[in-house]
Design goal:
Largest sheet: none
Strand content: under 5%
CATH topology of the largest domain: Leucine-rich Repeat Variant
Helix content: 55-70%
Number of strands: 0
Number of domains: 2
CATH superfamily of the largest domain: Leucine-rich Repeat Variant
Distance between the termini: 57 Å
Structural class: mainly alpha
Number of helices: 20
Length: about 350
């Protein structure tokens, strides 16, 4: 594609949809100026992108016509909101398409990027890695694995491992599995994170194996990763990991466990620091698939076992994040607990039980 062809393509994206938006006239007029300066173009496109998409999201979240909240809105206000939703979607689509064109313009081909991996210039190597990541096809994995095998500086090795996760291809699993045994914990931790971004049935068992790593940060990332990939089959292993001093497992249990798991975690109140436990309980309370009765029980047990300012603050934050229309029993119980707990300083939590790291 020539420069003139590319400029026409970008300009067509800006003018095609922008004429229908509130900012349409101004944006169409500035299109040619933006195209004249690539750095400015990228800056403007990226600054518009987030705001435009948030605008559409805000309008799309307006209550449905059948709800009482919707009835409280005047017809005029609701129609304006609906129009802004359409304008936001148009603007977001336009900006996203322009950004993709700008980012892809002048990008090296697969062959060129692979060749640049062998450059003596570190900046060119980094650019080649980024280019392969953007291409993202299965063919980019072998050259990146070969680069790892050549021996890389620590920071660059960690970058390549992270990029394999961003690419998310199953072809990288074998290499990432080997990196779980790398001598440096930082690399093992990056390998766990990368594996969690790949959709493949082999991933869960590999991440579970990292719960037994000798390094606490690697074990913690493994627990977090299991929650991230929704590994409900790993709940029992995560419970053992938590009891063996992997505090990050508490939040994963909150994301994955049922009422019985919540009860078992509540037994740790008074033995483990609240700062470790509360993220797990927050995940339980935030879940839509968990029965209201379980949430009420969590709140009641928290208040019964630790009626502290820390728990009060935790419940306040949770209630504040609930939608105004929420009328659940869990919310009512939390609000009652907030009124009942005194604003006294939180009692110091008992230290967590020392134990050997990891799960077995």
């Amino acid at each position: 594609m020539t420069d003139s062809d590319f400029q026409r393509a970008v300009l067509s994206v800006w003018t095609e949809q922008s004429r229908h938006t509130v900012l349409g006239a101004a944006m169409a007029a500035m299109g040619e100026r933006i195209i004249a300066a690539w750095p400015l173009a990228r800056l403007v496109v990226r600054s518009f992108e987030r705001g435009a998409l948030e605008l559409a999201t805000l309008a799309d979240s307006a209550p449905d016509a059948a709800t009482p909240e919707r009835q409280e809105l005047s017809e005029d206000l609701y129609e304006k909101l609906a129009r802004w939703a359409e304008r936001g979607r148009n603007l977001g689509s336009m900006v996203t398409r322009t950004k993709k064109l700008l980012d892809s313009y002048g990008a090296p081909t697969l062959r060129e990027a692979v060749q640049r991996l062998q450059s003596a210039n570190p900046d060119e190597v980094s650019e080649a890695i980024d280019a392969l990541t953007r291409i993202g096809t299965p063919e980019v994995v072998p050259p990146l694995v070969a680069l790892i095998h050549q021996g890389l500086p620590d920071a660059l090795l960690e970058t390549v491992v992270s990029k394999l996760g961003i690419i998310g291809r199953p072809e990288a699993i074998e290499e990432l599995s080997a990196l779980l045994h790398h001598r440096r914990p930082a690399v093992r931790q990056k390998a766990v994170t990368a594996l969690s971004r790949i959709r493949d049935p082999r991933v869960r068992a590999l991440i579970e194996s990292a719960l037994r790593d000798s390094d606490s940060a690697v074990r913690g990332e493994a627990a977090t990763a299991l929650g991230r990939i929704n590994a409900r089959a790993s709940v029992e292993l995560l419970q053992r990991a938590f009891e063996r001093n992997v505090p990050e497992a508490a939040e994963a249990l909150g994301a994955l466990g049922d009422g019985a798991v919540a009860d078992r975690l509540l037994e740790a109140v008074g033995r483990a620091p609240l700062s470790v436990l509360l993220p797990g309980f927050r995940r339980f309370l935030d879940r839509r698939d968990l029965a209201d009765d379980v949430k009420v029980r969590i709140i009641e047990q928290l208040v019964s076992r630790s009626p502290t300012a820390q728990v009060k603050g935790f419940l306040r934050e949770w209630v504040a994040a609930l939608p105004p229309a929420d009328r659940s029993r869990a919310r009512a119980r939390a609000e009652r607990a907030i009124r009942q707990i005194n604003d006294a300083p939180a009692a110091p939590a008992a230290p967590a039980r020392p134990a050997a790291g990891g799960a077995s």
